[in-house]
Amino acid sequence: MMNTFPEHFLWGAASSGPQLEGASAVDGKAKTVWDHWYETEPDKFYQQIGPKNVSDFYFQYKEDIETMKELGFNSFRTSISWARLLPDGKNVNEKAVVFYRDVFTRLIDNGVKPIINLFHFDMPYHLYVKGGWENRDIIHEFAFYAKTAFECFGDLVEDWVTFNEPIVPIEMGYLNDKHLPAVFDIQRAFQAGLHTMLAHVYAVKAFKENAYKGKIGIILNLTPSYPSSEDPADQEAAKWADVLFNRSFLDPAVHGTYPNELKQFIEREQIELDYEEEDLVWMKQYTVDFLGVNYYQPRRVQAGDTDPAHDVLQKYFKPYQWPDAKMNPHRGWEIYEKGLYDIAIHIRDNYSNIPWYVAENGIGVEGEERFIDNCLGEVQDEYRIVFMTDHLRWLKKGIDEGSNCFGYHVWTFIDNWSWLNEYKNRYGLVRLDLETMERHKKKSASWFYKLAKRNALPENW
Ligand code: BG6
After folding, report:
1. Domain assignment present for 2
2. Given the DSSP bridges, would you call strands 378-379 and 430-432 parallel, antiparallel or unpaired?
3. Is this structure's pTM higher than 0.85?
4. Catalytic residue list contains 360
5. Which residues constitute the domain of residue 244?
């Protein structure tokens, strides 16, 4: 049928351990960089809400998993906390094993396939002080953690993800001050980025060599780059934005090699990188089985400056504000639904039509209590329903034209804590009351149930 999605399409939501679990200092979990940052600079966090007791999934997961079933989910993605599973990096925390095993078992028992990610921005603090992604040792620390997770949960989990948006800690921590170490240093950014990619490769290697069951992939925030005009200089700018922000992780993950343009950039900017020859051999050999794509917004760019004051990237491209852009004013992100179709076709044509799914798509809105209907006591989040419907229409077109997309996950299930905005913008299908930690379904929750159960867009309901 025209508006029906492929059989066995995955419907559900995505979240992450540090944004959902809370209990950040409970049952032996060690500190992450976020716990440390909040301890030392709480003013940096919106309304001074830190990562310690967020969303309470650690204590309410049994009821929450029942709710997932009521929302029609057949899948759910979250992440394991490295600092909870291996507090000192070496010894397994049995309490973490008990917690995660029960979560995964209950998900499966409720017909919700767990897709389990290993890293969602939450570097253990003891590794951060040793240099984090800048220290080559992190590659083997991460591979050991990955192998530990496969051993502890491999009988329950068949869909593994190494990283969520690996470029974000690099971009936000080494070319911005939004993640630690909060410096601007292109040399350090590239070395940290290379080590992140190699940590991924060595984790995939551990998975394949030991023949664990299931599949392993990576989740990338692909932002299609659109030039501001037909002018060749603007077109060139879009190419550079794509090379640096999409292809830098996409090409090695799927094709097993870095793009030549990235090598040119490294030479031109005289960036020196440490690696071993065999790293590249394993990169070529251990590519992913599937891709997750987080899509919120496109990247619009124009030609760069010949002599930028301090931001080296501005030589290559500069941001461009499209006058016709439809904006989400709460997050300051453009809403461009067709971007999802463009991604679908790009993967079909340039990335071997690898199996992929929409691993995050959603809208964060401030002050959602304005939309609570007094009689129903429910947030009337029509805007979220419209947002998802419009994106799904473009996704469906991409699938109809042959793109190998197997699912759609909304960001997110229950309103969760965010790195930069804490609880300012709410993304959930379920509202979280911050005072009581009670959960209340929003209007979009029952809409999502119908979507998932009918496996079709609303025209076919
Ligand atoms: C994604 C991340 O980039 O966007 C999530 O994987 C994040 O962790 C989400 O929360 C929404 O962004 P934000 O900054 O509004 O929370």
Report:
1. no
2. unpaired
3. yes
4. yes
5. 10-454
- Catalytic residue of the set 21, 360, 368, 378: 360
Q: Which residues pair with 302 in a beta bridge?
A: 318
Q: What is the CATH number of the domain that holds 446?
A: 3.20.20.80
Domain-located, residue 461: no
193 confidence band (pLDDT: 50, 70, 90): very high
Q: What is the pLDDT of residues 196-229, one digit of tens each?
A: 999 999 999 999 999 999 999 999 999 999 999 9
**Which residues have C-beta within 8 Å of that of residue 436, sequence separation ≥ 6?**
none
Residue 15, ligand 1, Cβ within 6 A: no
Decide: 409 and 74 in contact? Cβ < 8 Å.
no
Nearest CA to ligand 1 atom 11: 418
Give the CA-trace dihedral at 169, 174, 177, 182, to 10 degrees.
100
Q: For 120-223, where are the E strands, in sequence order?
A: 159-164, 215-220
165 is catalytic: yes
Q: What is the pLDDT of residues 8-29, one digit of tens each?
A: 999 999 999 999 999 999 999 9
In the DSSP assignment, the letter for residue 371 is G
Let me know: does 362 contact 416? Beta carbons within 8 Å. Answer: no
